[in-house]
Each structure stands twice: as structure tokens, then as C-alpha cells.
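Batch 3, record 17
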Amino acid sequence: MNVIVETQKVTKTYVMNGIAVEAVRGVDLAVQPGEFVAIVGPSGSGKSSLLHMLGAMDKPTSGEVIFKGRALSKMGDGQRTDLRAKDIGFIFQMFNLLPMLSAFENVEVAMRFAGKGRKDRIARTKELMDRVGLTERARHQPRYLSGGEHQRVAIARALANNPALVLADEPTGNLDSKTGAGILELLRDICDRENQTVIIVTHDFRAASYADRVLVLRDGRIRGEAKIKGAADTHRALNQLLELELQ
Amino acid sequence: MLWDIALKNLWRRKLRTILAILGVATAVQLYLMISGIFTTYEQDTQHQLSAFAGKIVVERQMEELRGIADFTSSGSSLKAETAEELLALEGIDRSSSSAMIFIPIARSVMPYMPPAVVAVGIEPGHEKAFLGGFGMESGSAALHGPDDVILGQNAAKYYQPEGSNTPIAQGQTIEIQGQTFNVVGVLKQAPQIFGNAVILPLETAQKIFDRSNIVSSVILTAARVEDTQALKTEITTRFPTLTASTQDDMTKNANVMLEAMTKLMSLIKNSIIVVAIVVITIVVFVAVMEQRREIGILRAIGANRWRIFSLVAGESMIISLLGATLALPFAVFFVQWGMRSEFNSIPGIFQVWWQSIAVAAVIGLIASLLPAWKAVHVEPLEAMRYE
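Prediction for the assembled complex:
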């Protein structure tokens, strides 16, 4: 089976003030190339922790994360950083743009870490700024951009190196519903047109409805899963998941 | 290397960056001044010593001045008869030998330095004994009349008319001890003791300074250079109360003093370097703490530890190199306007400036080590939660 990323009984335990808290408990999942997967769950369900492990930003306490056939546990810090530079694009809830750089430079800087030459970086950045509809705002620093514009720049940055996987942690969490919908449509469009693999985590089922597949995470475990795209009745599938979430 | 991000980070915190640069500039300026003054003094000393190649300076050292390295001791005193005996020795070049008297006219502001202006009495026709091959800015290197004087370039500035910025020139007159003298020549840029000299006939100097039958020293030039050592031995044998110093002896004495000064200068310069490192370390350390979140973002999107290190080191080196660059005009300004121009150390400052740039680069790198170590160990997730 052709899989971009998969987890095998992945667990994450945090120790806070001597108390162990299991954020993720034995999660198995696999994501195909070109898939748009949403992981839904309430706050504290472990979805962000799971996303960080998928993105080589955190290590599981036990279990394995396998990215394009390579076990992340066998990689050193340098290799994991290299993976984040070239193969994984991250979109954060708080946007996390660099305040001293313009929108253009925020996108361009990601390509430096992947070793791209200056001409290629500039050409690709222009293409991406156009793709996310921010050509006119390219020279502005983040403090002059709206929330939606921030997230568009973040999306452009995440796509800069044509990554195998894009991970988005609550991409609409800090946006109003209209702006958030715009962002999700953009991600959906990127997934459809460029066969980009996307995983988002969200607490919002409406956001999850843009995905091909939705996984419900609660108390660190996957409680349910539904195929949304191509489902006979998308609404029913989502409602079933919602019921699962509310149980 | 993320130079552009380093520059933008520094620009974002302009006031702090400027203060850090000024701090480094002050430290490097002190380094430059000390190095420059010492380099100039060292070169000047070597240049002065070169004028005594093949010569022997005979003096009668005052007991209390014994051991103090000074080849133009105005504290030395010889009877004129003794000087004549010395000048009559076999094997000397009489035209390049002379009895001399040295009398300070103006003392130096700095301790243990030769006088700022010194009257040098010399036998007319034997000026070569003292002046050697030094060139003339104007006029002649020969004293023809009892009221003739030749001035060193610093002495010419000392005697410039009040309100004028132009040194005294050939053809003008100066007054010494109430007597008027004609300036027949001005030396071209000569080392310190020569540049500070007011050269006049020996008899005239003895008369106006009330030193009849007394000279300070006798400069003898061997007819053949290879006979210099033998001549020195003869002098010390025949005149046991006198000291005879060749160029080698003077060089040894000068080196003793230079060595002591070098140690002191090194101690001061090393302290300056330590202060500069501490200043930059503190500034960069605080900057790293403030930029923790941004460092986390960079790590999250693929910046490896080497890039983070080079970012921090880059900021540190920019501060230190800009500080070192600014230090040069500061040093020149303070030397030009803060010190008397009897000792022009500005060429020395320019000579060591390139060295201070290299030192600043090293300071910047060393100062960045601790903050950079902190920065490369920033965990992306933890840092991005940092507010």
C-alpha cells in the first residue's frame, strides 16, 4: 500500500509535576498520497500532540511514526530538521510568521533551508503569492496583514518546497467563520489540483467537512472514522461522527 | 548564513544595538589608542636608535639616574677638558663627532618621556654627529653664526607665534632665555628626540644656560665601523667613570623598557577585550531570549542548528565589527584633540586598525558562543508556545 505517513501504536505521555498524562494512546493511522484527512476532537484530546509527532517535531513515548517508509525514531535531530525543511509543510493556529520579514520573505526563507538557489526561490515565491492571492501584499510585514492574510502566507510557506505532506494545526482557530472557510477552500483546492496530501486537526466539524476522511480523536484514542468525500451521504457520515464525539 | 535576518533583528532593536556598538567602539578605541601609541613609540625608538649606528655616546651617568634607559640624558655632566680628550682619540672621524649639551626647554606631559623641547648645543661644523642623515624641510643643516638655530619639526610648532597655526619657518626668529636666534633650517619629519630639538652652537648654549666648561655627552663616530667596539673598550678603560654606549647598548636599554611597557599594554588590552566580550555576550544573550519564539519557528520550518548558530554569531559579529569600524575616528579624534601633538600616534593607530578589526571579529565570535549554544538548544514546540 502506498502510504505517505503512518503511525504504529503511537503513544505520547507528558509528565507534569510528577503526574503522567497520556495525551495519545496507541494510535494507528495511515494517510495515502493526495488525501485530505481531518482529525477532529475536543481540546485535550491529543490531536495536536499527534500532529506534532507526524511532523517530526516531537517524538512518541512509544510506537513508531513512519514517513515515506522511514522510521522517524531512527533519525537524528539533523535528519528530522531536514525532513521538516524539504518534505513537510506546517501551518500553525497562531500563524507563526517571522515578524521582521515581509510576507514574501516569510515564504522565501523556507526554501533557503531546502537548499534552493536565489532565482528559484524568488520565482517560486511569486508563484505561491499569486496562488494564495497575496501578490499585492507581498512586501508587507505581518503586522500589516489581517488574520486571513497571515494564514494565506503560512499556507504559501508550507507549500514552498513542494512537500510530501502539509500539516495544519487548527488552521481556522483564530479566524472568523468566513475567513476560515476561505482558508479551508484554499487547502481543498490545493489538495485537488496539486494532489497535495493534507492533514488538519480541528475541533470544528464544519472545518472537518472539507476533508476526504475524518478521524475522531478523544482521550488520545481514535473513536471513529468516516469517509466524507465520495460518501453517499456526507451529512449522515458527519452526523454519525458528531454523535460519537458527543458521547 | 542568515545575514539579512541578523541585520533585521538588530534593526528592530535599534537603540540597544546602537548602545552595544558604542560600547564596543569605546573599548576598541581604547585598544587602538594604546596599541597605536605604543606602536608609534616603538617605531620612533627604533628610528632614533638607527641614527646612532656606528656611533658611541659617552656620558658620565649620575648615580641616581643609573639603570634608567635614556640615551640623551640631560642629567649627564662632563668637563669640557674630558670632552676634548675624548675627541682627540685615535681612530675617530672628527667631522662626525662632537661634544654636546642637552638642556630641556619644555618637559613632556608623559612621565619618563624625553623633553617636549630640548636645546641641543653642538660644535658648529660637526652637526652631522647629531643629525646624521636626517633631511631638511627647509634651509640648511649647518650653523654658521653664534645666533643660528636649527629646529626639529616639533620644536618649530612649539615656537609658532601666538594666534598662528603655522610653525616657525626658516628665516624667522625665536627667543631663548631672552636672546634672539635666527632659524636657519627646519628638520623634515624626524624621530622624537631630533624632532623636539633646538640645535644651536655649543658655546652659545653653554653661555645662555650658564653651563660654562660643561657638556652633557660626547658623540664619537669611529672612522671605521668595525673599530667601534675596540674604541668603546679603550674609552671605558681609560675613562672608568664614564659610560660609553654603542647603538647595541642603547637598543638593549630601550628593549628593557619596551618589554616592561609591552607587558603593561598587554594586560590593559586583554582587559579591554574581556570587557568587550562581556558586553556583547550580555546584549546577544538578551536578544536570544527575546527571540526564542522566532528561533522556534525557524527550527520548525527546517533551520538546522548550524543555521541558528550562524544567525546568533552573525548578530554578534555585526555589532563587534561595526564597533571596531567606529572606533577608528573616535581614536583619531581623542588623540588629535585630547593629547599634545608632540607625539603623533595617529599613524600608529592606522597601522594597528586592521589588527583591531580582526580582534573584533574574534571578540564577536567568542561573545556569541554562549548565546548561540542556548539558541541551538531551543526546542521548536516549546519555543513557539513562549510569549
